[in-house]
Known about the structure:
single chain, 535 residues, alpha/beta, six-stranded mixed sheet, 19 helices, elongated
Amino acid sequence: MGSLDRRARTGANAIGRWLVAHPRLSALAAGPLAALGFSPYNLWPLALAALALFVALVAHAPNGKSAAWRGWMFGFGHFTLGNSWIAVAFGYQANMPAWLGSIAVLLLAVYLAVFPALAALAGWWLAGRARTGWVMVPALAGGWIVAEWLRSWAFTGYAWNPLAMIALGPFERPGLAAIAQFTGTYALSGMVIALGGCWWLAARWRERRGLAIALALLPVLALLVPRPLGEPREGTLRYTLVQPDIRQEKLNEREYFEENFARTAALSRPRDDEPRLVLWPESGIQDFLREGYPFRYYLRFNYLADPLASKRRIARTIGVNALLLSGTQDLEFEDGALAGARNSVTAIDGSGQIRASYNKAHLVPYGEYLPMRDVLEPLGLSRLVPGAVDFFPGPGPRTLELGEYGRAGVQVCYEIVFSGQVVDRSDRPDYIFNPSNDGWFGPSGPPQHLAQARMRAIEEGLPVLRSTTTGISAVIDARGVVREYIPRHSAERRDGFVPPAHAPTLFARLGNWLAMVWAVLFCVIALVASRRARG
């Protein structure tokens, strides 16, 4: 037995020496291992081990520049794997070669890695001379919170896969992510860093056996021990959630428009006369429903070449006692010429009347508009979404007043990933509708998208209803529990009652100011402890 222990220690020491000798390569390897904590892999022990290594590498950096480089290498590996689903999107765009998708993932990782680099530099500086002790853990956690918050809005923002998603449990329970209502997503990410730091400290203090065991067990207990959720509450507003499973290669092709509508309509017919909310995905309606466009646009895109006829057909489909929320597109004209479009959600009642609409505010660069179009278009680059004009952004979160069908907050597709930016706080809705088209993004993008929608439900204390073209569609209650879902590549519907909203959470009241309070707390702890260590 003693021989086995000696061999284990020898092997561990050899690994440790290699990591010390090659810190940047170690950081590069730790990044993708940490990304394996996200859906659909959910390998959180591996992710925490990678984060423990990351904390160690930053703690032992000889200077700030070295710490930043280690953070950048970690981020480059992390975002390369975490965003690999983006490469799939290029396979659906004839104007750009598919191989460009891999290049795009790498270039995006080059930029996004700046934020872990900033976090590492901030943590190294805050910890000061005490950085090789426990002080490094709160210092890096505080720096990471601020860096993730910056990533969510700098240069239009890219908030996909914050580290907090590692803390999210399976469909039937939210796990540690349940505390996001008191912290916000970005502060929870800092806490995930701290959990990884616990394993680093346990390894450093292994001679103090009791403390080391406690530190090693803390993350396991935090992520695995079930928390009381309370009894699920039932609502009174009926819904029909539709997933037509229209594949991306058919979604925007004129020859399939009528087939696509028929497929969606077949899943939407009323089964009784009770009032209900019908939910269709992004791009659920291809026809233009607004009146007053030049006739040639209706002739090209509307099957019936008449917006009034299109609305009447939708009304017959859903029945007189229903209201449809669906993704649509609206056009914008200037001086009689087409200037742009809107990615919209339109509410249509059983008489064919438009009751309300929402225009997507947080557009996807290169997906819904082409930055620097005058420069890039002559080089042969174009948007991933077909079309020669860019989409225009809407004004931001708003609540649609729908009478007996409740008060709907709307977030189209990608918008749902932005913590603190999904609800009009002065006009709180009853639920959030999140129509999406995830057919672009391969096997890993859709479960990651759903996971982030669950986090918004927890933060805001609001149910989230997701209707997608190809999956994963879901009904998420205000606790982050998935009540119903439709798996990928299934054409199905779900009927039920919209789960009720909770009272406004602490995060719903304070937004990301709450996450900044946690960041300040971590940073103050690190600074005070660092100064005492110097004294």
